[in-house]
Amino acid sequence: MKNKRILVVIDSLGYGGAERLVVSLLPYIEKYNYKFDVMVLFSDLSLKPEIELSGINVITLNQDYADRWSVLRLFYYFRAAVVDKKYDIIWGHLFFCNLYSGLYGIFCKSTKVIWTLHSPCYGVLNQKKFYHKPRQLFEKFFGNLFVDYKVAVSVAVADDYRRLMRWRDIDVIYNGIDFSHFPVSLGELKKAKIRKEYNVDTGEFMIVTPGRYSPEKGHMTMIDAIKILEEKYKIRVTWIVIGNGVFKSNVHNAIISSKLKSKVLLLDAISHANLLDLINSSDIAVIPSIREPFGIVAVEVMGLGIPIIVSRVDGLIEVTKEFKCALTTLPGDPDDLASAIFNIHSRLGYYKDVCADNMNSVRNYFDISVCASNWAQKFSDVGQ
């Protein structure tokens, strides 16, 4: 029996969660004798060298993201790039790539189409955006007619789609993380060096928040929480935020208005290795999201044995509930968040011990090899 050829279709190879998952996951699935090409629609190719090191072919369309609604033009390039490839499966990730993979399914009936549902595009914050209703209709139309299988990255995401789309045939495969690249721990000298590089003074409580700058990530709640920590609890903190996104200027302006510029460092996205070192050098991580479909950063933090505070929302609760590594707070509540940070600050040694004790359990549960095995089984089942 010949190996199945699979085309992965994704927006970019930037530092987002879905992109990092694909880059980490494909080499592990290839061990099950599948052959992959990766098609990238838009021009962020930051992770391209990493995936090419694994011998996986990358097809780039280099389209401007501003043209993402130019459906016919983009589909022309998409179809021209794959028309003679004779793929067995088209595996889409994220809304636009799911859309184009569904379009391809119209013209090539012998190719099975799988959609990976990373997040519904109709989140709590976005219900009023004018384009969400037509976007939902597009997704429902193509999903009903031209998609063979749908797989969500969490039960929370699957439940959202079941409610919004009335889809019942949704499988769930948790995202996986390649913990083989994770340091077990950093020595105190290296931690001190990293903290010094980011101008964190000795004795300051260092908090990190990885993730893109976007309204649903809850940065404004954290800004208010830091004011409470300074004024009510008298804790000296440094908050470091790492990510990309157009909302960064809004966060920066709010920090200036709150007179917290000396307490906060806003970084652009950094390499994954540097991000892991930065998290490992911190006292705690905080993910104050208003919604989160999976929470891959939360899993990474727990896999490093670092105390973490997450909002009590969908995917974050799902990935942390089996372990004792996380405190949860009400989303959008700075008082509750400040209180939780003060709690960990007051008992930091205890929480570090608890998180260290649970670290291996987290790594075993979310290991990339488990995720790869589940996807390999899914591909094996396709068409049977």
Set out the fold topology.
Layout: E1 5-10, H1 17-30, E2 35-42, H2 48-52, E3 57-63, H3 71-82, E4 89-93, H4 95-107, E5 112-117, H5 132-145, E6 149-152, H6 155-165, E7 170-172, H7 188-197, E8 205-210, H8 219-231, E9 237-242, H9 248-257, E10 264-267, H10 272-281, E11 284-287, H11 296-303, E12 308-311, H12 314-320, E13 326-329, H13 334-346, H14 348-365, H15 368-381
Parallel strand pairs: 1-2, 1-4, 2-3, 4-5, 5-6, 6-7, 8-9, 8-11, 9-10, 11-12, 12-13
The tally of strands reads 13
Count structural domains.
Answer: 2
Query: What amount of the residues lies in strands?
Result: 15-25%
**Rg (CA only):** 21 Å
Architecture overview:
The chain has 384 residues and is an alpha/beta fold. The chain contains 15 helices and 13 strands. A seven-stranded parallel β-sheet has the order 3-2-1-4-5-6-7, sandwiched between helices. The model is unreliable at 124-128 (pLDDT under 50).
